[in-house]
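hey
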């Protein structure tokens, strides 16, 4: 089986919902990148490589996300280690990162609350080494992955084990958070990809608003005067999130849109 035959086989064998992953999966099975595939179309796979490819296709068809199969995911131009203990970084979150990079004050202090694999904090730190950044998570497994990513990108970040603000005793110029905000039974979340990710990072009680309320309610006690809270949420929660922030004393609470022009974030001072 040469590369072209392997490409056809992979596309034909993958389930319809994940055929776009075919070249990524083939390249990963060979330990190469996609560019290598296109430059070596006559390369012939050995029996072990074919066996590995078939195993990966089977696991992908069973709903295992590509990022978990590869053990990494690209986010804001950087690669991050991921596994089943952390949420897979998504491109819509990059808008929040870009906004923070542009607007955080020089030498400012940032708290990334519920950091998961550390992608938000590390992407910001990579571009803004002047900042003092604390990244916290309730999951020790997630913090282990964040530590690996911090070492990979040589970023100076303080990692803390904390259930929201429980172990946070500092004040910050910015708090940024992408908390769990999916309601149990939400039909939009009935997806094989999502079901493979940690429930702790996805689902929240109170119709998906429990974590949003916890982040907003505790933010004022950990922000400097006129400091900023930026929180990610479902587009369906844009209005309620703005109302919660206003009720908590935040001024100028308004929504920002993601790359798909959906109201994905609320920011207030």
């Amino acid at each position: 089986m040469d590369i072209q035959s392997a490409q056809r086989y992979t596309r034909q064998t993958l389930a319809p919902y994940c055929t776009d992953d075919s070249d990524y999966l083939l390249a990963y099975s060979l330990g190469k990148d996609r560019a290598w595939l296109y430059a070596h179309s006559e390369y012939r796979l050995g029996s072990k490589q074919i066996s590995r490819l078939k195993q990966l296709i089977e696991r992908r068809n069973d709903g295992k996300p590509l990022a978990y199969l590869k053990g990494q995911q690209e986010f804001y131009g950087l690669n991050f280690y991921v596994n089943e203990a952390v949420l897979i970084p998504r491109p819509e979150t990059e808008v929040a990162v870009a906004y923070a990079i542009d607007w955080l004050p020089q030498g400012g202090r940032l708290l990334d609350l519920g950091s998961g694999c550390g992608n938000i904090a590390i992407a910001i730190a990579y571009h803004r080494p002047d900042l003092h950044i604390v990244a916290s998570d309730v999951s020790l497994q997630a913090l282990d992955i964040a530590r690996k990513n911090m070492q990979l990108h040589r970023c100076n970040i303080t990692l803390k084990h904390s259930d929201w603000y429980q172990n946070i005793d500092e004040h910050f110029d910015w708090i940024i958070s992408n908390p769990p905000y999916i309601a149990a039974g939400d039909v939009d979340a009935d997806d094989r990809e999502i079901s493979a990710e940690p429930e702790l990072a996805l689902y929240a009680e109170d119709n998906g608003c429990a974590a949003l309320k916890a982040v907003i309610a505790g933010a004022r006690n950990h922000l400097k005067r006129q400091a900023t809270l930026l929180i990610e949420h479902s587009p369906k929660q844009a209005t309620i999130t703005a109302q919660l922030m206003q009720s908590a004393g935040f001024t100028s609470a308004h929504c920002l849109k993601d790359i798909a022009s959906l109201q994905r974030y609320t920011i207030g001072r």
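The radius of gyration is 20 Å. The chain has a mean pLDDT of 94.
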